Amino acid sequence: MDKIGVVGIKNGDGFAKFMSKELIIEELYEILDPEIKVNIYDLGMVYDIRIDGNDVEIDITLTSAGCPLADKIEEDIVKSMSKLGYTAKLNWVWIPAWDVSNITPEGRDQLAAIGFPMKVLMPSTWKKRTKEDFSE
């Protein structure tokens, strides 16, 4: 379990339900980038998730700052978090900009399966970016 721990919330039936950051991430796996058709988490678009009671704040970026489908992605996230009993707030992050090093190994596999060239997806200079890479 991470630093956030477990947060108690109420579901629609009034029963206590416990959610964790990991369950929120599982829900984000279900949200696909509308153009690429790979989930937003494995694409590395989600930079951070913070939970405070029934509120979840998500730092997120787009694969392209000019993406015309940002509203669709935001709508899908808000609906998805609502199903879990959370009110979602999205913070759109542009610095650091998204790049292919954000993609998880699972995301690279999904992209390769739909025909993206492996040379682009697996450059030898890749390293997994950490939160420290994003701080000033």
How is this structure best described in words?
This protein is α+β, with helices and mostly antiparallel strands. It has a single domain (6-127), classed as GMP Synthetase, Chain A, domain 3, CATH 3.30.300. The protein is built from five helices and five strands; from the N terminus they run ββαββαβααα. The chain has helices at 21-28, 70-83, 105-113, 118-121, 131-134, and strands at 6-10, 16-20, 46-52, 55-60, 87-92. It has a three-stranded mixed beta sheet with strand order 3-4-5, with helices on one face. A two-stranded antiparallel sheet has the order 1-2. β1 and β2 form a beta hairpin.
Q: What is the CATH architecture descriptor?
A: 2-Layer Sandwich
Helix/strand structural class: alpha+beta
Strand arrangement in the largest pleated sheet: 3-4-5
> Outline, from the CA principal axes?
globular
Report the mean per-residue pLDDT as an integer. 81
Number of strands: 5
What is the N-to-C order of secondary-structure elements (H for helix, E for strand)? EEHEEHEHHH
C-alpha-based Rg, rounded? 16 Å
Termini gap: 27 Å
Give a quick account of the main beta sheet: strands, pairing sense, barrel closure: 3 strands, mixed
Number of helices: 5
At a glance:
With 136 residues, this protein is an alpha+beta fold.
Q: Main traits of this protein?
A:
5 strands, globular, 136 residues, 3-stranded mixed beta sheet, GMP Synthetase, Chain A, domain 3, 29% helix, alpha+beta, two-stranded antiparallel sheet
